[in-house]
Amino acid sequence: MAADISYANATMDNGFSSIVSxxxxxxxxxxxxxxxKEMYERHEDxxxxxxxxxxxxxxxxxxxxxxxxxKGRKGIRLNDGxxxxxxxxxxxxxxxxxxxxxxxxxxxxxxNYRILDLPWNNTLTWYAAAIGVDFCYYxxxxxxxxxxxxxxxxxxxHTSEDFNMGVGIRQSVVQxxxxxxxxxxxxxxxxxxxxxxxxxxxxxxxxWIHTEAIKSLGPLEYILNTPSHHRVHHGSNxxxxxxxxxxxxxxxxxxxxxxxxxIEKMHIVYGLIYNQPSFNPLYLQSFYTAYVVEKFKxxxxxxxxLRAIFWGPSWEPxxxxxxxxxxxxxxxxxxxxxxxxxxxxxxxLVTHYAVVFYGFFDLTDRYMGMTPISVLIIVSYIIAxxxxxxxxxxxxxxxxxxxxxxxxxxxxxxRSVASTNPALGTSLQIFYVLSAMFWCLHTLKLLxxxxxxxxx
Length: 456
Known about the structure:
Layout: H1 2-29, H2 49-52, H3 54-70, H4 78-98, H5 102-113, H6 123-146, H7 148-154, H8 175-179, H9 192-208, H10 227-233, H11 251-256, H12 281-298, H13 302-310, E1 335-336, E2 339-340, H14 343-366, H15 372-393, H16 399-413, H17 415-420, H18 422-441, H19 444-447, E3 450-451, E4 454-455
Helix pairs in contact: 4-14, 4-15, 6-7, 6-9, 7-12, 12-13, 14-15, 15-16, 16-18
Membrane topology: Multi-pass membrane protein
Protein name: Alkylglycerol monooxygenase
Keywords: Endoplasmic reticulum, Iron, Lipid metabolism, Membrane, Oxidoreductase, Transmembrane, Transmembrane helix
């Protein structure tokens, strides 16, 4: 009996130690800290570290909000923070829909045309992959600011007028497809598993440098990309434009002349130079691509049409590739876009958002066992739901009727859940029916949601 108790205690201790160890590893990956001995031979075996890190993203965002409030700052705004998370969910939904197809070309080049056979489990390969991925990220990121069609995708990441960790997951759905070509030279030497792993670590590291809660990292500022350097990159002030493209390392900016330090006591204005005020993630993902198409159509010669796509965002006929520096605006202060919602409305949106979020994570657990059509249907539901929630944060006149339609459709569709989980299915049906009835009985005239802007 004593032996059984001892064994049970040992098992519990080992289980607890394992949980703690896994969480420490999860947090460590946000800072590019990962045991080098944990390598993978096949790229299919590399875990989706980015998806596993979502709990840590949310925890760090909450901690950042608390720190900022303790410093007397406003912290993360509900509407802007949820919009950032929605963009991250959009990006992951895209990956679920095309099931990692981005890496197929890389693997094909490596299999057929590699010029070096680096051992996948060698420490030098690990470091070569880390440096190679970061070097290619610098040029990919720089191209996203200097090539108009690439900027049309990357601008999503710059749409927030705040600068916090939520912005770290505010990503474009299709930028991965446009930017992936910059990493393909690595396929001549770096094994696919090493590339996939470090590509994820690079983006995990860049999550936490989106913050105003950390002022400086001291001597590390000379080597690493830090919150201070990245604040400059996200600014709309003229001195912030087209600088600090680094991912993990800032040395590439120092080498290629694109580094600019943060100026103490200089107020940085975040967001796009020509802001598009909205909390609608679908609109923010797509509006600039429509602008590029319009600019393309506005010119008569094919030379100007192509330059409108492949030259810089500021290019106009008769100017340099990146536009006329003298004509670029210097944003020094502006009002932030905001919309006032009653507390009950915010509570409603957060509740529905949580249900959608739960559905997203449930999909990430089950999607490999589902048919592509089923995945596409659920992904469409998630994107539509987050879009309508964003429209409600915008106080769009179309949002109430769209919410009625969404909740009515979901009340009908949750009947399928009732067959496998009656309690959950019935609860969801009641939840959506009541929500649909609520928006049928209330109009914006009764709701009285008003726009509110505030200089900060």
